[in-house]
Here is the input.
Amino acid sequence: MLRTRLSESLKQAMLAKEARAVSTLRLVLAALKDRDIAARGRGVADGIGEDEILQMLQSMIKQRRESIALYEQGGRLELAQQEQEEIAIIERFLPKAMSEAETEAAIKDVIAEIGAAGIKDMGKVMASLRERFAGRMDFGKASGAVKKILA
Here is the structure.
């Protein structure tokens, strides 16, 4: 479904002559194709799943945010603006992000469910969160929250 949405959005952007959207969606589809090819080596013939696609999109956004910070430090505001536009295009394909309160509640639920007692159980908690909330949770922030709760 997400693959179809990406392809359809590319077609619409091409028809509307939206250059930024076309270039961004082509980058996303190229990255998706690369991941599909890599997955074939692991025995996944029909491409990566929705969860992996969502993780890929999140990592693309993270890369662009890092680039924005570097461009702003270097005084290249026009390039930072381009990256921001790309983030807005990619975010259209992600589900609504969880709020901090929702994230904290989800973390507490998973900790209780797993029976995590200390910092050594952090890996199990994070794995469970990634499995359940791919594309909806900022795992960088969640990691800090899990560490704080388990400590």
Q: What stands out?
A: The two ends are 40 Å apart (CA to CA). DSSP finds seven helices and no strands in the chain. The chain has a mean pLDDT of 89. The domain at 100-150 is CATH 1.10.10.410 (Arc Repressor Mutant, subunit A).
